[in-house]
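quick one before i forget lol
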Amino acid sequence: MLPLTAAVPRALAELLRGSPLSPGKVDFAWKASVGTALQRATAVCLEQGVLLVDAQSAQWALEVRRSSRIILRRMQSLLGEDVIREIVVRA
């Protein structure tokens, strides 16, 4: 039996992967991957496998850049390995 902390992310990933790709789905996966504070300070858009992140300030942009490898893995686990190839941060 899986602990609840492992089962919930797995179930969420299965639900997201099974639904059509949309801006709302990308936004939801972004919030789940980065948390509320960072989500409020950024806006995301997916274009041809590149997740474009617009940050409200240089400090938030730096935070996303520092964490981009972790964020990319989280986003890929929620949306699928082939949906997002890279993250580009703009401030």
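fyi The chain has a mean pLDDT of 90.
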